[in-house]
Amino acid sequence: xxxxxxxxxxxxxxxxxxxxxxxxxxxxxxxxxxxxxxxxxxxxxxxxxxxxxxxxxxxxxxxxxxxxxxxxxxxxxxxxxxxxxxxxxxxxxxxxxxxxxxxxxxxxxxxxxxxxxxxxxxxxxxxxxxxxxxxxxxxxxxxxxxxxxxxxxxxxxxxxxxxxxxxxxxxxxxxxxxxxxxxxxxxxxxxxxxxxxxxxxxxxxxxxxxxxxxxxxxxxxxxxxxxxxxxxxxxxxxxxxxxxxxxxxxxxxxxx
Length: 256
Ligand SMILES: [Zn+2]
Ligand SMILES: [Zn+2]
Fold this sequence. Notes:
Elements: E1 2-7, E2 21-25, E3 36-39, H1 45-49, E4 60-62, H2 68-71, H3 73-83, E5 92-97, H4 100-108, H5 111-119, E6 120-125, E7 129-133, E8 136-143, E9 149-155, E10 160-166, H6 171-177, E11 182-186, H7 204-214, E12 218-222, H8 230-238, E13 244-247, E14 253-255
Parallel strand pairs: 3-4, 4-5, 5-6, 10-11, 11-12, 12-13
Antiparallel strand pairs: 1-2, 1-14, 2-3, 7-8, 8-9, 9-10
The chain binds zinc ion (2 copies).
């Protein structure tokens, strides 16, 4: 599979770097059409997505949780799919946490209530689940983030890719990552602040520990706190993990 990094910024976009968003595509022979899944629609990612694919050609959209830095561009994706010169041939599967479509229509206004289902074929995630989209099999499970949030694993029959979404370390993420060749972890917590609430993000050290526990050969760090440089994040993860470790940058295209 091929993963294109649309943005890594947290918790708001910076010049040249959108919020959380990734385009995952199946690997196909030249001339064949890949299966394309947009994973998280953070602010700014719709514009980046269009460097690679027409939105109407998406096979599915998968949203980890409702926070704006992962969902905000769904609002304008609705406009793109409804009003662009070419719309989708059928509603695009939109897999996300329960209530997502209601939140969108509350923001977009009453006229969207009947129109959103013409654009999106919404499937709510409430626990463990899976769905086959074209040549890809998506599996998800609940992760720890203080709001309903999900991690994702995607297989193409030969390789497996896993994505944490925003999450604190948790056993369900390790389960999803088992057998994956690449684990993409959002390491949004710098570890500096003390807080009384339950953990909601990975630190870079946590990401290393999760990758080690899941025994994956490669860790990709993303959504790294602004106070941590990508090089420092990689070094901190490597203190707890011996596999290949890199930091994602916007525009990266990775074989996963
Ligand atoms: Zn979040
Ligand atoms: Zn986030």
